[in-house]
Amino acid sequence: MAEDGGLASFGADLAAVARRSAMFVHRILKGAKPGALPVELPTRFEFVGNLRTAETLGVAVAPSVMARADAVIR
After folding, report:
1. Are 72 and 66 in contact (CB under 8 A)?
2. Which of 39, 66, 37 lies closest to 50, judged by CA?
3. What is the DSSP-derived secondary structure letter of residue 61?
4. Are 9 and 70 in contact (CB under 8 A)?
5. Nearest-5° angle of CA 68, CA 18, CA 45?
6. Phi, psi of 73 (to 5 degrees)
7. Residue ranges covered by each domain of the chain
8. On the chain, which terminus has fewer CB atoms closer than 10 Å, C or N?
9. What is the dihedral of CA 34, 37, 43, 46, to 10 degrees?
10. Would the pTM count as exceeding 0.85?
11. What's residue 28's pLDDT?
C-alpha cells in the first residue's frame, strides 16, 4: 500500500509466501493429502514507509522508525 501512496505498510513478505505455497503444491502433486499438510504462518514480514506521503500530510516520522524499514519511498 505504501508504494501506491499510503503512509506505511506492514505485512507478510509475499515472495516468501509464494515460495512456501509452491512447496505445498509440489507435495500435493506428488500424492500428499492436503488435509495432512501442516498449517504455516509467515515468518518474514516487511515494513515499508513512504516519506513522500508523510511530507504531503505534514507528518513527522522519526528517523529511527525509517531506519528499521525494509524499504523507504522518497
Report:
1. yes
2. 66
3. -
4. no
5. 15
6. -95, 125
7. 2-73
8. C
9. 0
10. no
11. 97
- Averages of pLDDT over each 10 residues, the chain, 74 residues: 93 94 96 96 95 95 94 94
Sign of CA dihedral 58, 1, 43, 40: positive
All residues at 6 or more sequence positions from 73 whose CB lies less than 8 Å from its CB, including other chains: 2, 3, 48, 49, 50, 51, 52, 53
At which residue does the C-alpha cell 500428499 appear? Answer: 32
Q: How many CB atoms lie within 10 A of CB 50?
A: 24
Q: What is the DSSP letter of 50?
A: E
Beta partners for 9? 48
